Amino acid sequence: LTTFKHEFEVAMTCEGCSGAVTRILNKLGDVKFEIDLPKKLVWIESDKDVDVLMTALQKSGKEVKYNGTK
């Protein structure tokens, strides 16, 4: 199964925001991710559907934009 590296832009402004995103993604399970807080980017490696990842990220209450796979 191919896992893609998806890039999302999440309107994170502080450690608290990135902490919330981290908790959400850990709960999702089976995802590897990196967060770049200054650039407001989240990279997720997963074979889950983009919609699933998007919905999860939106639970953080932040604005989320999908930038495509890298």
TrEMBL record:
The molecular function terms of the Gene Ontology recorded here are: copper chaperone activity; metal ion binding
| Superkingdom of source | Eukaryota
Q: What InterPro entries does the entry give?
A: Copper_transport_ATOX1-like (IPR051881), HMA_dom (IPR006121), HMA_dom_sf (IPR036163)
The record describes its quaternary structure and partners as: Homodimer. Interacts with ATP7B. Interacts with ATP7A. Interacts (via dimer form) with SLC31A1 (via C-terminal domain); this interaction improves ATOX1 stability and controls intracellular Cu(I) levels.
Q: Keywords for this entry?
A: Chaperone, Copper, Copper transport, Ion transport, Metal-binding, Transport
Provide the family line. Answer: Belongs to the ATX1 family.
Q: Does the keyword Ribonucleoprotein apply?
A: no
Instruction: Please give the function described in this protein's UniProt entry.
Output: Binds and deliver cytosolic copper to the copper ATPase proteins. May be important in cellular antioxidant defense.
UniProt-recorded name of the protein: Copper transport protein ATOX1
GO BP terms in the entry: copper ion transport
Looking at the UniProt entry, the stretches that span the membrane are none
The record lists the lineage as: Eukaryota, Metazoa, Chordata, Craniata, Vertebrata
Q: Which residues form the HMA domain?
A: 3-65
Per the record, its GO cellular-component terms are: cytosol
